[in-house]
Design brief:
Helices cover 47% and strands 12% of the residues. It has 436 residues and is α+β, with helices and mostly antiparallel strands.
Length: 436
């Protein structure tokens, strides 16, 4: 993201210069997975709330609106012709949307209206999901009563809202025409000028004495003449923070083979916490973790061995750093190789699987390889402490998704999780072979 107020203007403009495909439906959905494919062991036992969008024939689930705007979805489900859409009443008689797929996946969806959030109506979700899957809509529509719709479709102002706006995921390149149109709208509404005014103030430009046409000309020239992100990065004007920084850049900047946040954290954990029961499984205090993150992002000196940092806070802090890497320690381009290896592993080719995993680790870029080895050897030491009750399998469930991940465009949570967990478990268990 381009830093500063210029980014604020461009980000706001991106929301208004979008291309198809349109979002068919969006809003808050509560989801419960009732059945999973045979290869998936875990299942959601309770309802979970997501911000969901139906785009083309794919239903995307986001943690919340902020993650939606950043295009960071938790999972996605293809609603193609092999999916079956049905309606199923809950205990109170309110109808839920049921999605069934041939691979064994079944989930229930409940439309949830929230104050201040525009949402597609329950009927619209049913219509568009059935349209994507090929399920006859008329039969479903006939089963909807007025009471069914009223339970789902009324939001904070008492009216159902169907949303028909373009996806903020697929932004097109911003042109001068787009900027001009955007500034036209800004000029007409004084209440929306904050980003533009801040940009002018930062540049020391006063346009108050100019007429409307001249103001647009000055702003247009200012926006289109700004340097690109790569130019700013090359000139050293952009400095990455610690969290969210690519491994290679962070190691290069700190002149280390493994980021200090990882080494400092693991040293502190091993100093006093390897025998802590449920280590890495028990969550630390979120507010304390964020405060610690802020200190590291400002590159302040922090002694993590201090007693004020309890073991669960440190483990949560390490997991947060790994989750926020722009790309997992094992990069996206290696995932198909690992996926094939684990599929072969299930058919009995264990030796071949370990050989493939060894090659994947060996071929990692140097910062990734050093960091991955450091982390795995730490997890080996954790697994060998019987008192903490965290064996290789338990640790792989926690670290699989953050050390190894599929590309977001291809990610399928229900399919990817078992592969990630199995791969990391094999590596922890056979670390001598992998790193030989």
């Amino acid at each position: 993201m381009i830093p500063g107020t210029y980014a604020a203007v461009i980000d706001e403009l991106k929301l208004k210069t979008l291309k198809s495909p349109v979002i068919k439906c969006e809003g808050t959905l509560k989801r419960k997975i009732t059945k999973t494919p045979p290869e998936v062991k875990s299942v959601e036992k309770s309802w979970a709330s997501f911000y969901a969008i139906l785009k083309s024939n794919t239903l995307y689930f986001y943690k919340d609106m902020k993650h939606f705007k950043r295009n960071e979805f938790e999972s996605a489900c293809d609603i193609t012709t092999d999916a079956v859409i049905d309606l199923e009443p809950d205990k109170k008689g309110i109808k839920l949307i049921k999605i069934s797929k041939p691979n064994g996946l079944e989930m229930l969806l409940r439309v949830k209206a929230e104050t201040g959030v525009k949402s597609s109506t329950f009927e619209s979700w049913v219509e568009n999901l059935s349209g994507s899957s090929g399920t006859p809509y008329q039969g479903l529509k006939n089963s909807l009563s007025a009471s069914d719709i009223s339970h789902h479709d009324v939001n904070s102002n008492g009216h159902g809202n169907d949303v028909d706006r373009r996806s903020i995921i697929d932004c097109k390149e911003i042109t001068k025409k787009d900027i001009t149109e955007f500034l036209n709208k800004k000029m007409k509404d004084p209440s929306n000028k904050s980003s533009v005014q801040k940009l002018l103030e930062d540049q020391g430009i006063d346009i108050s004495h100019l007429d409307k046409a001249k103001k647009k000309e000055v702003l247009n020239r200012l926006l289109t003449s700004r340097p690109s992100f790569s130019d700013l990065e090359r000139k050293g004007l952009i400095k990455y923070t610690v969290f969210g920084c690519p491994l290679s850049k962070l190691c290069s900047r700190q002149r280390v083979s493994v980021p200090r946040v990882i080494t400092d954290c693991i040293e502190a954990i091993e100093y006093r916490g390897l025998k802590s029961g449920g280590i890495y499984r028990i969550s630390g205090n979120s507010a304390s973790i964020q405060k610690l993150r802020f200190k590291f992002d400002r590159e302040e000196t922090v002694d993590l061995k201090d007693e004020e940092y309890d073991i669960n806070m440190l483990t949560g802090f390490l997991k947060l750093f790994l989750r926020e890497l722009p790309e997992p320690v094992i990069p996206f381009n290696q995932y198909p190789i690992v996926e094939n290896a684990i599929n072969n592993d299930r058919s009995g080719s264990r030796e071949e699987t370990l050989t493939t995993l060894k090659h994947v680790v060996h071929d990692l870029p140097e910062p990734n390889k050093s960091t991955f080895k450091y982390l795995i050897l730490h997890l080996v030491r954790v697994a060998h402490e019987e008192e903490n009750q965290m064996d290789e399998h338990n640790l792989s469930i926690i670290f699989g998704p953050s050390l190894l991940g599929n590309h977001p465009d291809k990610a399928n949570l229900l399919v990817d999780l078992p592969i990630q967990n199995t791969a990391i478990e094999r590596i922890i268990t056979n670390y001598r072979t992998i790193f030989k």
